UniProtKB/TrEMBL annotation:
Record field: transmembrane: 405-425, 437-459, 489-507, 513-534
Any one Gene Ontology molecular-function term assigned to this protein's record: ABC-type transporter activity
Gene Ontology cellular-component annotations: membrane
Domain of life the protein comes from: Eukaryota
Gene3D superfamilies: P-loop containing nucleotide triphosphate hydrolases
Organism phylogeny: Eukaryota, Viridiplantae, Streptophyta, Embryophyta, Tracheophyta
Keyword list, A-Z: ATP-binding, Membrane, Nucleotide-binding, Transmembrane, Transmembrane helix, Transport
Species of provenance: Camellia sinensis var. sinensis (China tea)
InterPro entries: AAA+_ATPase (IPR003593), ABC2_TM (IPR013525), ABC_transporter-like_ATP-bd (IPR003439), ABC_transporter-like_CS (IPR017871), ABCG_dom (IPR043926), ABCG_transporters (IPR050352), P-loop_NTPase (IPR027417)
Domain ABC transporter residue range list: 44-290
Descriptive protein name: ABC transporter domain-containing protein
Cell location: Membrane
Membrane topology: Multi-pass membrane protein
Annotated family: Belongs to the ABC transporter superfamily. ABCG family. Eye pigment precursor importer (TC 3.A.1.204) subfamily.
Length: 554
């Protein structure tokens, strides 16, 4: 799709016309046509983006500048790569562009079809985070099916949504591992590359207009990385706008990007076509002296390392002037001097030209612009369906934790100890009745706190998932709260029942059946209350996050 092509009509999603073809000979795998169906085109532009955070110390408060005057644009059909050394601000910029920044308010302007960010965009944006946030015990197919059921529009039937999940599995080449668990550091599951593809699948399943990816190739071998970038290119070819951060791409990978932003310490060192980056740097006097991967060369420059790179005469002059701050021990310009030179060179030689291009209005009609600006949220499915899907998913995921041998042994061991301490206690005489009352009190207190502690420890694991899914408007918070609270109950009640059964027979509580059953009811109520408390806490934290998010989103 050409950037200057005028688009007249918004295209409606149909989700049934994905075409598969061509072979990816390069990566040696069968490649299909990814997400070829039409979508709402989104032109993303950003100018003078600045971002600062306030770091509160014990004695003082410091303001740290993370991004300074970043600009750029990316059109449907293009892949924009954000490159730079570690800590240069790639993730921050990506999060700002994807409307996912919390905390301080960013400066500058970010527009989508010339309109500011709106809630409507949440359902049109796919965001693949750096960390793979997935449920470890869910299988690949289950993970994608749940995403399809929750995120795809109401107009599709359940079967169509499930088919869409299977299509995505085919498209991403995940057929072989579709019945494998995702896994975690404790549970063996799919490989790192497969997990990354599941994360991408989770996002492309909605056929997003804008796809953001934070280091999708980190930790992968070059063939798998190439395959992932090839997938991104295919997605972009379907009319989507793709923005990805990337650490150290191979030269083959580098040439697959349409546009490039090179960052250094939060400043812009280059924005433009990736294929023209080397020409630009040679025009400012920086060229590799030996054959080098362009990405490696650019990262070296952004780090201020100019070994095996020609030194621009302007920089050399500064060194010869004998300024110790700009010179290293071997007589070469210091990294700080190189950085300063690169920032200045881009500002004076290229920035104005690029900024002028950004001022040109996006060539799309008003209908498309206004569509982006609607503040109406679009839920994929009704409240009840959200609840039932989340209920089933919760039940499936957490049964592994609940029925771990460690937990069963823990509960049974405590039951046996109690049974031995109160072994066949006779509840006929008043002192013994007091004894049994003590036991019943202990049981109620134990089961009042046990689920609370469980909830406290499981919450941090779920929080990342809740944040990720709510950021994409996958479901309502109330549906999550009710499903989370109720899906734990059947599991929560099984272990206490086992526990109580053991204590009942060992401690000879048959004679005090009345108080015993009263205790059971109390135990179950305690568990319900603990679950409710957990849900309320999670919702409170989530709402607090959302308030922060609302403050910082512009
Ligand atoms: N909320 C924050 N508070 C303090 N410092 C922050 C905050 N957010 C980002 N930073 C700092 O801003 C800088 C840029 O961070 P960012 O994560 O964007 O870098 P990056 O280029 O994505 O790095 P990497 O490639 O290692 O992921 C880092 O020095 C980071 O420590």
């Amino acid at each position: 799709m050409k950037p200057d092509q005028t688009i007249r009509m918004p295209v409606i999603q149909t989700f049934d016309n994905i075409k598969r073809a061509s072979e990816d000979l390069e990566a040696g795998i069968h490649k299909k046509r990814i997400q070829a169906e039409p979508t709402l085109p989104i032109y993303l532009k950003f100018t003078d983006v600045t971002y600062k955070v306030v770091i509160k110390g014990v004695t003082s408060t410091v303001e740290k500048e993370i991004l300074n005057g970043i600009f750029g644009s990316v059109n449907p059909g293009e892949v924009l790569a954000l490159m730079g050394p570690s800590g240069s601000g790639k993730t921050t910029l990506l999060s700002l562009l994807g409307g996912r920044v919390r905390g301080s308010t960013p400066g500058g302007s970010i527009t989508y079809n010339d309109q500011p960010y709106s809630k409507f965009l949440k359902s049109r944006i796919g965001f693949v985070t750096q960390d793979d946030v997935l449920f470890p015990h869910c299988k690949v197919r289950e993970t994608l099916t749940y995403a399809a059921l929750l995120r795809l529009p109401k107009t599709l039937t359940k079967q169509e949504k499930e088919k869409q999940a299977i299509d995505v599995i085919d498209e991403l080449g995940l057929e072989r591992c579709q019945d494998t668990m995702i896994g975690s550091s404790f549970v063996r599951g799919v490989s790192g590359g497969e997990r990354k593809r599941v994360c991408i699948g989770n996002e492309i399943i909605i056929n997003p207009s804008l796809l953001f990816l934070d280091e999708p190739t980190s930790g992968l071998d070059s063939t798998t990385a190439l395959r992932i970038v090839q997938i991104l290119q295919d997605i972009a070819e379907g009319g989507k706008t793709v923005i990805t951060t990337i650490h150290q791409p191979s030269s083959r990978l580098f040439h697959k990007f349409d546009k490039l932003i090179l960052l250094g310490k939060g400043n812009l060192l280059y924005f433009g076509k990736a294929s023209e980056a080397m020409v630009y740097f040679s025009s400012i006097g920086c060229s590799p002296l030996i054959a080098m991967n362009p990405a490696e060369f650019l990262l070296d420059l952004a780090n201020g390392n100019i070994n095996d790179v020609s030194v621009p005469s302007e920089l050399e002059d500064r060194v010869q002037m004998g300024n110790s701050e700009t010179e290293t021990r071997n007589g070469k310009p210091s990294p700080a001097a190189v950085h300063e030179y690169l920032v200045g060179a881009y500002e004076t030689r290229a920035a104005d030209n690029e900024k002028k291009k950004l001022m040109i209005p996006t060539p799309i009609d008003e209908e498309l612009k206004s569509k982006v600006y609607t503040s109406k949220r679009e839920w994929g499915t009704s409240w009840w369906k959200q609840f039932s899907i989340l209920f089933c998913r919760g039940l499936k995921e957490r049964r592994h934790d609940y029925f771990s041998w460690l937990r069963i042994t823990q509960v049974l061991a405590i039951a046996v100890i109690l049974g031995l301490l109160w072994w066949q206690s006779d509840g006929n005489s008043p002192p013994n009745q007091q004894d049994q009352a003590g036991l019943l009190f202990f049981i109620a207190v134990f089961w009042g706190f046990f689920p609370v502690f469980t909830a406290i420890f499981t919450f941090p694991q779920e929080r990342a998932m809740l944040n990720k899914e709510r950021a994409a408007d996958m479901y309502r918070l109330s549906a999550y709260f009710v499903a989370r609270t109720t899906s734990d109950l059947p599991l929560d009640l099984l272990l206490p029942s086992l526990f109580l059964l053991v204590v009942y027979f060992m401690a000879g509580l048959r004679k005090s059946a009345g108080p015993f059953f009263l205790t059971m009811v109390t135990v179950f109520l305690c568990i319900v209350a603990a679950q409710g408390l957990f849900g309320a806490t999670s919702c409170k934290l989530k709402v607090a996050n959302q308030k922060e998010e609302a403050k910082s989103t512009f």
